[in-house]
Amino acid sequence: QVQLVESGGGLVQAGGSLSLSCVVSRGIFSTYVMGWIRQAPGKEREFVSAITRIGGSTYYADSVKGRFTISRDNAKNTVYLQMNSLKPEDTAVYYCATAIRPGVVRDPSGYDYWGQGTQVTVSS
């Protein structure tokens, strides 16, 4: 069983920063990619960022390029998302997710396991 636990969400003023962490348990399958997907109330899930387990290739949604940075520590089975220059439109529940097979990393439906999510609220 693969389990993911996010932490680091909270309330921050526009222009501020937050850092999210996700610890991934050692499952029966090695993961291909770890990503962050967010969902605002009443809206569908939106891809934010991802990083491959091997090679460390990174991917970002256009809306967060230059503001968010994804990183990983394979020894700790942890992925991070540093969020700077936050905007009210970044407000959402942020989910850590992983895909165990190669797929379309920018598509939330390509991910197999999900964490419970952590709330990020940016006030104006």
Describe this structure in words.
The chain is mainly beta and 124 residues long. It is 0% helix and 48% strand. The chain has no helices and 11 strands. The strands form 2 sheets. Strands 2, 4, 5, 6, 9, 10 and 11 form a 7-stranded mixed sheet that branches. Strands 1-3-8-7 form a 4-stranded antiparallel sheet, with no helix packed on it. The protein is globular and about 40 Å long.
Keywords:
124 residues; 4-stranded antiparallel beta sheet; 7-stranded mixed beta sheet; 11 strands; globular
Q: Which structural class best describes the helix and strand composition?
A: mainly beta
Count of separate DSSP helical elements: 0
Q: What's the N-to-C terminus distance?
A: 40 Å
Low-confidence blocks of residues: none
Report the C-alpha radius of gyration, rounded: 13 Å
- Which oligomeric form is depicted? single chain
- Quick one: overall form? globular
Give the number of DSSP strands.
11
In helices, the fraction of residues equals under 10%
Question: Roughly what is the average pLDDT, rounded to an integer?
Answer: 92
Q: Profile the largest sheet.
A: 7 strands, mixed
Report the order of strands and helices. EEEEEEEEEEE
Beta fraction of the residues? Answer: over 45%
